[in-house]
Design a protein that fits this description.
Rossmann fold, 2 domains, 5 helices, single chain, binds 1-O-pyrophosphono-5-O-phosphono-alpha-D-ribofuranose, alpha/beta, binds hypoxanthine, cytoplasm
């Protein structure tokens, strides 16, 4: 299932330039500064080991074809392929603070006997989760669950698979599922069922983006659970702030619409 346009390049991604030797600095214990070893002196075994590091190094990593092609989307240190920015880094930061303040007030109001467990849905939620929990002023535990349904495409398989489970015991606890995006609703509905089975007493969902136009699966919050969302997302395939296309773009600090020509129509589902 390769959605990217064919690119002429090979399947290797150079991380360091080939060419002349790049001698690595030697750390001198005495001075705590970096220096090169004295010339014409037989090197000690330790120095010999260090000397090996002076060889010119070109690290190439074999990548699957789609990933190698996606790597060529990078131009001048920025990603190509973004049609337009929907939310800037500053707008995101401001909104995440508001959502965290709402969560803080609600968690305090619930007077929980045990701290809430914030369950981030890997991989996409990792950025939002990190930003959010640092702004919530209440005791909480953090855990991760991995659910996948999009693979390398832009269309949900409709059957999310939980490929990595929780470490924390959520029985009898208030759980906040932290998502980067609720789109069809398949993932969140599958996770709520999963957490209910594990005995969570109440389940909230806090999603950075909510794309109601694509919703096809209903989900019910549990007990005192509440739905929180950062922004309502228009019906575009978006990337950045943790969200990917074929595992790329997650590191963009903003959210943008991916140009349609970056992917072909996904016929795999
Ligand atoms: O509401 P839905 O239609 O189910 O879509 C939402 C899910 O899709 C994405 O996960 P994906 O399967 O792409 O895995 P990822 O988090 O590793 O990117 C996203 O991170 C959500 O978890
Ligand atoms: O629009 C989206 N972008 C990235 N990942 C997603 N998973 C569901 N919808 C999206």
């Amino acid at each position: 299932m390769t959605m990217l346009q064919p690119m002429p390049n090979s399947g290797t991604l150079p991380f360091l330039p080939a060419g002349p030797a790049y001698p690595l600095p030697f750390h001198s214990r005495k001075t705590s500064t970096f220096s090169t070893p004295p010339a014409n002196k037989s090197p000690s075994p330790l120095a010999r080991l260090r000397l090996r590091r002076r060889r010119p190094r070109t690290l190439t990593l074999a990548l699957p074809a789609a990933a190698a092609q996606a790597a060529t989307m990078v131009s001048d240190g920025a990603y190509a392929g973004i049609d337009r920015v929907l939310w800037t880094e500053a707008e995101i930061a401001a909104r995440v603070s508001e959502v965290a303040a709402e969560l803080t007030a609600d968690l305090r109001g619930l007077r929980l006997r045990e701290p809430a467990v914030f369950v981030g849905v890997a991989t996409g939620a990792f950025v939002f989760l990190a930003d959010l929990v640092r702004r919530v002023d209440a005791p909480l535990a953090v855990d991760l669950v991995r659910a996948e349904s999009y693979g390398d495409g832009t269309v949900s398989s409709g059957r999310p698979t939980i490929t990595s489970d929780l470490k924390v015991d959520v029985a009898g606890k208030h759980v906040v599922v932290v998502e980067d995006i609720v789109d069809t609703g398949n993932t969140v509905s599958c996770l709520i069922a999963h957490l209910e089975k594990k005995g969570a007493s109440s389940i909230s969902v806090c999603t950075f983006l909510d794309k109601p136009a694509r919703r096809s699966a209903d989900f019910q919050l549990v007990g005192d659970g509440k739905f929180y969302r950062g922004f309502e997302c228009p019906d575009y395939f978006v990337v950045g702030y943790g969200m990917d296309y074929a595992e790329f773009y997650r590191n963009l600090p903003y959210v943008g619409v991916l140009k349609a020509e970056m992917y072909k129509k996904d016929t795999s589902n």
